[in-house]
């Protein structure tokens, strides 16, 4: 059975973390923009910033977790 390389695992972790973080950030950003009554086009900016920030942080942590688990053999 061939094992994935460490780089492939970390890359997959970052990609999955970014996708999940982006989805959660979009939902939370929309909720927050409506709740705090952000005016006009600033809603789009607020939702975008929340989405990208959440995707970056979650992707970073999932990538770091994948890197930590990379050396372990089960």
UniProtKB/TrEMBL annotation:
Stored InterPro entries: Romo1/Mgr2 (IPR018450)
Keyword Transmembrane included in the entry's annotation: yes
Transmembrane segments: 12-31, 51-70
Subcellular location: Membrane
One GO term (biological process): protein import into mitochondrial matrix
UniProt keyword annotations, A-Z: Membrane, Transmembrane, Transmembrane helix
Keyword DNA-binding: no
Domain of life: Eukaryota
Family: Belongs to the MGR2 family.
Protein known as: Reactive oxygen species modulator 1
Record organism: Ananas comosus
Lineage: Eukaryota, Viridiplantae, Streptophyta, Embryophyta, Tracheophyta
